[in-house]
Amino acid sequence: MMRAPSISRRSALTGAALASAALALGACGGGGRSGSKPGTLRIMTNAISGGKNAAEATWIEQWVIPGFKEAQKSAGKEVDVVFEAQGVDDEDYKTKTALDFQSGKGADIVALDGIWIGEYAQAGYIKPLEDIAAAAGSWDGWAQIPQSIQGAASFEGKRYGVPQGADGRVIYYNKTIFETAGLPATWQPASWDDILAAARAVKDKAAGVVPVQLNAGTAMGEATSMQGLLPLLVGTGRPLWADGAWAGDTRGMRQVLNLYKTIYVDEGLGDPVLQQEASGRDTSFQEFAAGRIAILFEGDYFWRSVINPAEGVGTAPMAERDTVVGYAKIPAVKAGAGINGQDFVSMSGGTARVLNPNTADPALAWELLAFMNSVEAFEARAAGTLSISPRNDVNAKLLASDPMLSFVSEQVLPITAYRPGLAQYPQVSSLLQQATLDVVMGTGVDEAVKSYVTGLEGVVGADAVRSGD
C-alpha cells in the first residue's frame, strides 16, 4: 500500500541536506548579490579553460560573451558579461551553488546537473523560469525542445531551466557475432524474452563470447542504475519515484532483479565477475570492442566517444564501428508494458542552466539565457564535438552525418525518462546497485528485495515506500 510523505517532511529533509552542504563552504564566500553591478551579468558553470570541460569554457568566453555584448550594443544597450569559471569536483560545485542560492548571492545564470533540479526546487533555491522572467514562457525555442527533453530541467510539471544537451540509453550489438549466431543484422527486440533468446543463441553458437553485458553491482556505481536497472524498471510500467513515493517491494522491482538472476545466475549469459571488478565497466568496453561481448546496454556517448574510430577520440576505438556495431531501442518487458504504455524505453541525464531568483535584472538575464540556447549558439558549441543538442532544428542539421545519433535524437529521446531529482536519490541509487550485486553473487531475489527495502526505509522513511504494484 502506497502512502505519500507530506511535502513538509520532504522539504525539511531536502533543506537540511543542502544547508549542511552549503555550510561546508561558508568560509569561501559566494560573491555579491547577483547582478549587483548595473548592466553586468554573470554566468557560472563547472568549466574552466585548460581544465575541466574546457570546450564549454572556451565557448562561453569566445562566443557567448562577445556575441551577446555585440547583440545588445546593436540594440542600443551597453552590457557586460562576466564568466565565473569553476573547475572542481561535482560535489564541490554543488556545494558552492547551494551556498550561493541559500545566501541570496551567486551568478545570474547557473549551470546545474539535471538531477539537482528537484532537490533545489524543493529547498526553494530556484524557481520556475516564468516566475522569474515572464518572457521565458513565450520563448520560441520551447517549440524545438520536446517535452521529454524539457523534463531534464523540470520538476512537478514546471520548467526551472533550459536543458543543455540530451543523451539516451540503447542496446548495442555486434553484427558479426550475430551472424555467427544466426541472428539478423538488423535487430530490434520487442521484449525481454527477445533479448534472452538472442543471448541464448550467442551462447550456443559463438564460442568464447559473453552474450550480454547488463551493468550490475556497486563497482560500476551510477552506471549500474542508469544503464541497467532504471531503464528496465521503467520498462515494467512504473518509475523509481512516483506520486510521492519510491518503489520498494514492487512487481516491477522483482521483474528486474529476476532478469539479472536469469542472465548472471541461472543461465550464465553474462559475466558475474566483471560486475564486481573496480574497472569492470572499462573492461566491458574493451571486451565489446574486441568482439568478446555480443550485447551491451549503454548510453549514446559509448558510440560517439568510447568506440569512436576517429584518431585520439575513442578509448576503445573500433575501426569498423559503422559497419559492425548495431543499435536498438530498449524494449519494455513486453509490448505496451512500459511507462505511459510504451513499447520501448530509455533513461537520460544531462545538465541545465537556470536563472538565479536573486538576479537584479531578470529580463536581461533571460535574454542572455535565451541567447545561449539559440540555434546559432548550439551550432557554435558543437564545433568539433558532435553530440545531441536539446533542439530538434539543430539536431536535424548537425546530426545528419551520424545515423546513430540521429536514431537517438529521433526515436529514443521522445520516449525517455529521468532519475528523480530529489536529495535522497544518490543513497537510493546505491541501494539499487547493492541489490543487483546481491543477486549477481547468488543471493535470492526475495532476500535481495528485503535488504533493499530495509535500506530504503532507512533513507526515505517507511511512509515514502510503495509496494505491491
Kindly describe this structure.
This protein is α/β, with parallel strands linked by helices and 469 residues long. The chain folds into two domains: 230 residues, Periplasmic binding protein-like II (D-Maltodextrin-Binding Protein, domain 2, 3-Layer(aba) Sandwich), CATH 3.40.190; 222 residues, Periplasmic binding protein-like II (D-Maltodextrin-Binding Protein, domain 2), CATH 3.40.190. Helix content is 43%, strand content 14%. The protein is built from 19 helices and 17 strands. The chain has a five-stranded mixed beta sheet with strand order 2-1-3-15-6, covered by helices on one side. The chain has a four-stranded mixed beta sheet with strand order 8-11-7-12, with helices on both faces. The chain has a three-stranded mixed beta sheet with strand order 9-10-17. Helix 18 runs antiparallel to helix 19. The longest helix is centred in the first third of the chain and has 21 residues.
Helix content: 40-55%
- Number of helical regions: 19
Low-confidence stretches: 1-32
Briefly note the structural class of the backbone.
alpha/beta
CATH architectural type of the largest domain = 3-Layer(aba) Sandwich
Strand order of the largest sheet: 2-1-3-15-6
Provide the CATH superfamily of the largest domain.
Periplasmic binding protein-like II
Q: Beta-strand level of the residues, as a percent range? A: 5-15%
**Strand count:** 17
Provide mean pLDDT, rounded: 91
CATH class of the largest domain: Alpha Beta
What is the first-to-last residue Cα distance?
Answer: 8 Å
- As a whole number of angstroms, the C-alpha radius of gyration is 23 Å
Largest sheet: 5 strands, mixed
Count of individual domains = 2
- Morphology: globular
CATH topology of the largest domain: D-Maltodextrin-Binding Protein, domain 2
